[in-house]
Amino acid sequence: MIATVFPGKLNGAQVAPASKSSMQRACAAALLHVGETTILNPGHSNDDLAALEVIQKLGATVEMHNAINEQGATIVESLTILSKGVQPIGPEMNCGESGLGIRMFTPIAALSNQSITIQGKGSLVKRPMHFFDEIFPALGVKIASQNGFLPIQIQGPLQAPNSITVDGSLSSQFLTGLLMAYAASGAQNAEINVIDLKSKPYIDLTLAVLHSFGWKVQHDNYTHFRFLPHAPLKDKIQYTVEGDWSGAAFLLVAGAIAGPIKVKGLQMNSTQADKAVMQALQNANVSIALEEDGIQIGSTDDAALRAFEFDATDCPDLFPPLVALASVCIGVSEIKGVSRLAHKESDRGKTLQVEFEKMGVQIDLEGDIMKIHGGDEIKSATVFSQHDHRIAMACGVAALKANGPVVITEAAAINKSYTDFFEHLRQLGAKVDIA
Predict the structure, then answer these.
(1) Smallest Cα–Cα separation from 151: which of 174, 136, 132?
(2) Do residues 100 and 45 touch, judged by C-beta distance below 8 A?
(3) How many CB atoms lie within 10 A of CB 231?
(4) Is 140 exposed, middle or buried (0-12, 13-18, 19+ CB in 10 A)?
(5) Core-most of 262, 364, 373, 427, by most CB within 10 Å?
(6) What does R_g of the chain's alpha carbons equal in angstroms?
(7) What CATH number does residue 25 fall under?
(8) Helix 245-258 with 389-398: angle, nearest 10 deg
């Protein structure tokens, strides 16, 4: 797919997409919950669909309930998931291109005593999974990988020792999988000790989902996690997927530079890491008003936007939208946390540098700091998504302030997380051609 985004102003209101972080965790919890789970406001990104496929491969049944939205389109309003626990129906599962999916569902699949081959697609086959080679033997799980890469073959059942220590520096997603698996295994009084945990807010989200289902996990400053006795889980549980701050960050930045618009459906008390975008927007002197029905953002005068500093170490997915924001801010913006970008769908630090240079935006990578030189004219150009959903969306947002159209090749990458992104820009008044 090729998307051409033309410069222009936005107005109106848009509802944020469903959080794939929340949705995927809810799918995992629904699989582990022996009973019936209703998921409201389910997402439909490729990662969400991959999670649904995985839980069905691991024994759950999924029923979709449709409705008609305001635009007259058929949407999935809710899901009913029935599960008897992890009972694989075959020898293989495929997590698509979802980094969270592969890291979360692998320990969950290991609760079974069946041999399972775990596959992935696209960039996922190049992302390191050495963590499992290192930790699974201590959990009684047999594992054979391709030198730390997919495919992985495992055979449980996972046995939770009284105490285990894991490295949290590469990704919090590995810990999410262990927390889910430990909770469901009934590993009372077991302890997971964590060294150098990154992206703590994502662990807050994992714990919030576990607690909403009825499991009890305590932690001491994210270094020691303990699993406590709990009342039997309810036979029927309902969970509502909240709005996605990761996807909404692109809408908020679009409103900041080309609005004003209103973004609806976000929880200000969310534990999602990317809610921190609000602080970055404030640092850039963006006009923001919190209203009862949403966030009003941007003004008719963007001349006051200024260069900003922001630490994205715990929320690295904010780099792409914040680069688009920094591109129109006067001065040199600095974003910390570049070291967290190497193992995403692309090496995002370098990808952002290469693709934004095509639009005339200079980006310097200095160790863990990214410097974006903003305020100059953004140029009409043809850019390449590098098959990375967030790069495609960042270029689409920056195009709103360019001196001509920006052509984004391989723009279908957005389907990984925010399938409706370009359509939502259109509904806000942008001119977007799709070919």
Answers:
(1) 132
(2) no
(3) 7
(4) middle
(5) 262
(6) 21
(7) 3.65.10.10
(8) 10
What is the DSSP secondary structure assignment for residue 269, as one 8-state letter?
T
To the question of pTM greater than 0.70 for the whole model, the response is yes
- State whether 157 and 67 are in the same domain: yes
Task: Spell out where 317-404 has E strands.
Answer: 331-336, 362-366, 369-374, 381-384
Q: Do residues 211 and 310 both lie within one domain?
A: no
pLDDT in tens, 96-135: 999 999 999 999 999 999 999 999 998 899 888 999 999 9
Q: d(Cα 171, Cα 124) in Å, to the nearest integer?
A: 14
Last residue of a domain, one of 229, 259, 291: 229
Residue 194 lies in a domain: yes
Helix, strand, or coil here: 79? strand
In a domain, residue 238? The reply is no
The partner residues of 365 in beta bridges, in order of sequence, read: 370
Provide the token pair at 375: 């305020």
Beta bridge mates, 370: 335, 365
Query: Residue 332 class from Cβ within 10 Å (0-12 exposed, 13-18 middle, 19+ buried)?
Result: middle
Where do runs of H (alpha helix) occur along 240-330? 245-258, 277-283, 319-326
Q: Catalytic site residue 317?
A: yes
Stated length of the chain = 435
Query: Which one of the listed residues 302, 317, 388, 420 is annotated catalytic?
Result: 317
What pLDDT, on a 0 to 100 scale, did the predictor assign at position 161?
Answer: 85
Residue type for 260, please?
A: P
Shared domain for 58 and 154, answered yes or no, is yes
Q: pLDDT for 207-229, tens place per residue?
A: 999 999 999 999 999 999 999 99
* Cβ atoms of 395 and 408 closer than 8 Å: yes
Q: What is the distance between the alpha carbons of residues 280 and 325, in angstroms, rounded to a whole number?
A: 9
Domain that holds residue 374: 3-17+244-434
Q: Does 45 reside within a domain?
A: yes
Torsion on CA atoms 179, 185, 191, 196, rounded to nearest 10 = -20
- Residue 160 Ramachandran class (φ > 0 left, ψ -120 to 50 alpha, else beta): beta
